[in-house]
Amino acid sequence: MKIRFARPEDAAGIAQVHVDSWKTTYKGIVADAYLDGLSVEKQWTRWEKRLTEPEPGEGVMVTENERGQICGFLDYGVDRETGRIHEAELYAVYLLQSEQRKGIGRQMFQSMLDELKAREYRSLMVWVLEQNPAVHFYKRLGGEEAERKEIRIGEEDFTEIALYWRDIARLTI
């Protein structure tokens, strides 16, 4: 397994992981009709733009399996709620179901933390659906619930939880 920064040519692999992960992670949570409507092509276009026109302070990391295929990714940058340059937000992290429970998510999170510390970020937060099993992963890593908000996915309302790490300089995984 290899973790590295994403390149524009990784957009297709990231898009595939993004859609596949949504379909397995949110099965039974989000309506099947919504999940069935997810498109690798639309995500590919989105990720291609994201990787060719990055915003300052943002980064995308990918994880490759032993065959060199992208099996996970992590997207982070400046906290979108506050816009404060030393407060980071984990925008997205997805890992194919076949690669979960192998410690890869933890390694990806650590790689991101190392980068955030090098860029002098002080804190980190992530928004996650309340029903997403990843809530437990983030809490085991020391994330503390900071707030909740309602969001809409398709025709349904969901609760998102903000998990927060106040001082990433002292955070050890």
TrEMBL record:
It comes from the Bacteria. The lineage of its organism: Bacteria, Bacillati, Bacillota, Bacilli, Bacillales. Its EC number is 2.3.1.-. This is GNAT family N-acetyltransferase. Keywords: Acyltransferase, Transferase. It is an enzyme of class 2 (transferase).
